[in-house]
Specification:
mainly beta; 5-stranded mixed β-sheet; about 5% helix
Length: about 110
């Protein structure tokens, strides 16, 4: 698994070229920081839809929580918040992909 780093997005400086900060999705999955303001961006340049799955290791009232999924259509871009529900080993989210052909990802940290 590759450890993704976050790109800070502030009110003073946004991200004009999202593709420029994205990296290739790892076939073995990726990890990412989690918490308020963090989001995963998935850019699907493939001709088929792809799904990113974010593991939810915790429970609520003794019940397992469903993993987060983001289905991104062919040629589209998707975004999902990386909330504390996804906090796993080393305080990071574990992300897997159904395929990584022409899929790039970025983690954004939205701030003031």
């Amino acid at each position: 698994m590759a450890a993704l780093t976050a790109t800070s997005v502030t009110g003073a400086a946004g991200v004009a070229d999202l593709a420029a900060v994205a990296v290739a999705a790892s076939g073995g999955g990726d990890t990412a920081p989690v918490g308020p303001g963090y989001a995963l961006v998935v850019i699907n340049g493939d001709a088929s839809p792809h799904t990113a799955t974010i593991a939810t290791p915790g429970t609520k009232n003794g019940h397992a929580l469903a993993d987060g999924t983001l289905v991104v259509a062919a040629g589209d871009t998707g975004l999902i918040a990386l909330t504390n529900d996804y906090r796993g080993a080393n305080d990071r989210a574990a992300i897997t992909y159904d395929a990584v052909t022409s899929v790039t990802v970025a983690v954004l940290k939205l701030g003031a």
